[in-house]
Amino acid sequence: MYHYDAADNIHRPDHLAEFAYKDVGNTEEHLYRLMRGVQDKSIHSAEIRCGVIDWPTYYHLTPQRANIVRPFREHLQRSNILELGAGCGAITRYLGEQGARVTALEGSQARARIIGARCADLPNVRIYCDRIQDFSLDEKFDVVTLIGVLEYAQVYLVDDDPVDALLRHARAFLKPDGILLLAIENQLGLKYFSAAPEDHLGRAMIGINDTYGKDTPITFGRRELTDRLRRGGFATTALYLPFPDYKTPACVIHPAGYDLDHVPADWNLGTLLSGMVAHDSRNASRPTFSLEMAWPLIARNGLAADFANSFLFVCNQGGEIPRLSGHDHILAVHYGSDRPFELGKETRFVVENDVITVHTRRNTADSDEFECEAYEPGLSWFDVLLRIVNRPGWGVDELLDWCTPWKRELEKIAASNPDIGTEPAFSHFATQLPGHYLDAVPANWIIHPDGSAAFIDLEWAIPFPLPLEFIVFRGLFLTLQRVTSCAPPKQEIPLNLGHLTMTLLKHLDIDIAPGDIDNFLILYNNFHNITVGNPEGTFNRATHALEISTLPIRLI
Known about the structure:
Blueprint: E1 2-5, E2 10-13, H1 27-37, H2 46-49, H3 55-61, H4 73-77, E3 80-84, H5 90-97, E4 101-106, H6 109-118, E5 125-129, E6 141-147, H7 153-156, H8 162-172, E7 174-185, H9 190-193, H10 222-231, E8 236-243, E9 251-253, H11 269-276, H12 291-300, H13 304-307, E10 310-316, E11 330-335, E12 345-352, E13 355-362, E14 371-374, E15 379-380, H14 381-389, H15 396-415, E16 432-433, E17 445-447, E18 453-455, E19 466-467, H16 468-482, H17 497-507, H18 514-532, H19 541-548
Parallel strand pairs: 3-4, 3-6, 4-5, 6-7
Antiparallel strand pairs: 1-2, 7-10, 8-9, 8-10, 9-11, 11-12, 12-13, 13-14, 15-17, 16-19, 17-18
Helix pairs in contact: 1-6, 11-12, 14-15, 16-17
């Protein structure tokens, strides 16, 4: 029996078993006070964003957490969902906002009351505080989720096979045609080979060395976990790949997206995965190799599903692979970074009749119309930079050979727009480009197989012309900062990324006065505040990085 505690908006059993899981420090207390105090409880709330003070609070509060279930938005909106191990309610809140009927179960009382406060304005969300193995409810569900939960089965369940027991518990709550959404780290994730710490135990190589204990968290490789799911009663599974991982995914690769036997020849999965490395804040501090260089190799050998850092399984009890509306034609879905809700976007790579198109829409719940454009196959100019900086002994000359063609392309664009005027603060610069070329950075410059080139993803625009000098300055620094690992360079290379950027500008005959640098930084800072939803005037880390960022040189 459960009784409803109106003060905390949760249902409790008469006798609640001890469940000691919590973050280090007072994270839960901080989140509870925050959720009780804010007026706007939505996942993109500016009030909630201000409550981020460290990695644990970021993890619990970032809207990116919900990206793990966004690919199934249309299906979830009309479903009755049971969320097992709901944590502090990041995904609960998203599901509730989508209009789903949500039952959230959390064993920690401290965390359950955070969800209660977080979802207090959502009548379609019920919160229960109980252990999964003790939870009893006379109801079956369309969807059951185990997101970041299965790995703790050995810690909190008493059974000869706790993993199997947890899967059986989850299956018992499903309708015959219901689906299980299971997200977990991959024991054989590529980043763990590069010395990234194991997520739960905090030390490198624990998973790779297979040294988990009988009462520690545990993860599995693809084949082993697939076998586990089948033994747990799930006859069929479909595997999606969240990148950089399931915790804060920026991209989800659909099953069709890594099927080399059926994927179109011009689909460049490797470049997409390489670009995800910079989104991962939990990479190795001293990696043993370049993840950016390794992912294209993994992709073209058909191994993305085996080495993805995390898994997202869609499972059912029937004999057919779970099919969700429209998913057969989707190769991957990319989500805008951690932005305010109205500024974030969803980009789908869709294939029909062996032709790939790019479909884009805003993240808002009522946004169903996509804008479509052609897919631009080819090599990102950032990929070319990676090849340079991962060869030992690289130097300024190689970097100049790399950035000069990109600069010339920008000059051509400026020459084709001679009468666009100038912004007064930048009127002394002779070469100006339209403001929508703000994001004409090397990573957005694609070289097609036939040698032609095009800029893609020019999402943002400044409402006035921009000096060539600013676009080159910003583009070089952002691109260098995106490299997470490089080989040792020549001694001539400045180790500070700001100094390296200025060195390259000088060799490109771009002379920027100190006062102009200050104006560039103000513009750079203000624009960054807009894109991530910071209050106007915030001095953000992106600007500070110019002074403190250094080359991430590998020791080997």
